[in-house]
Amino acid sequence: MGKLDDAKNQIQVLNAYLSSEYKKTATILQHSSNTLRSNISLKKYPSAFENVTMICSSYDKEQAIDYLMTSIKNVQANLNQIFASKEVPSNVAMDIAAMCYAAKLGLFEAVTKYVNHFFVPIYKATEVENLAHSSLVPKELSKLKRPENYTMEELHIFVQNYEKQMRMDFTWFFEQYPINANRPPEHTVNVKIGGRTISNNNIQPPPAAAKNNLAQIASSPSLLTSSLPLPAPKEFSIEDFINMQQDLTKILKNWKDLPTN
């Protein structure tokens, strides 16, 4: 089997793998949404607040995976062109850069293996590295990484959009956790949610949308080294989510048992 045929077969496997990851994230999102509805109806607002942060994280990841899957399908449709040249085709440059970026993050082993096995031999490791850091990387993929912190401003923006989509009443959220709060809700202080602590610390926005083509990058070397932090956080599994819920239940129970003045 030739390299091109192998690439065509393996990209089908890659599509199936990411489809499975997408479904896992969608399951967590649906579970969190159902739990949120229950906590709202019971007026358990601190717990509902934690649900909101989990939904925000899962929603972002779901959208990012969907975008990555679209990029991979575009690459799949142009594999003949990709293997026919040592240059990155301009019509799929952003899609290839998206795959290189995802591979560099190390979140999905199958993506990393595909890039290393097929793209590195064609474009060389240096060019793959440059693509992963270039402004060609779509800003949507920055959501593959969970932020260490969500600001209250970010949560408010998310809720404003989410309540329209879900047709849910989030009046309780805006009243109890106002955007001008000088610190996060008392019940979330020092509480890790999926490895993330809720706080009002500012975080950097995602990189701007890519508008540069390869010709522009060639004439502007600085674009190739534009800084995109590339940590490799542990993937958040359903088992992690269940463990998180159990830990959170213990924490909330301890709060209830605290003596009151």
TrEMBL record:
<protein>
    <submittedName>
        <fullName>Uncharacterized protein</fullName>
    </submittedName>
</protein>
